[in-house]
């Protein structure tokens, strides 16, 4: 988990590391988990921002949109789903697209379609 991940505008923590250092973080996470078990979520709202890509050799790569959840929700997402990331890799699961950028997704889906 990225401890320096950016906050959402409604977060009271500056990053994940600050959440984990908060003595109340376990209670915040526990309450959010209970909400999720009931099919509710006060923090299950994505925030989207534009992000410029790094330049390579002076050439502009462009930009993309990044969507992310509130810090406690990202913590829960990582807690329960991070173990599944490896299973989405194409070399493990033939239909997997994990680790690929959206710009490569179309080519990957085309490869899968041709192989079926």
Automatic annotation (TrEMBL):
GO molecular function, one term: RNA-directed RNA polymerase activity
Residues of the RNA-directed RNA polymerase fingers/palm subdomains flavivirus domain: 11-112
InterPro entries given in the database record: DNA/RNA_pol_sf (IPR043502), Flavi_RdRp_fingers/palm (IPR000208)
Protein name: Genome polyprotein
GO biological processes: DNA biosynthetic process
Highest taxon of the lineage: Eukaryota
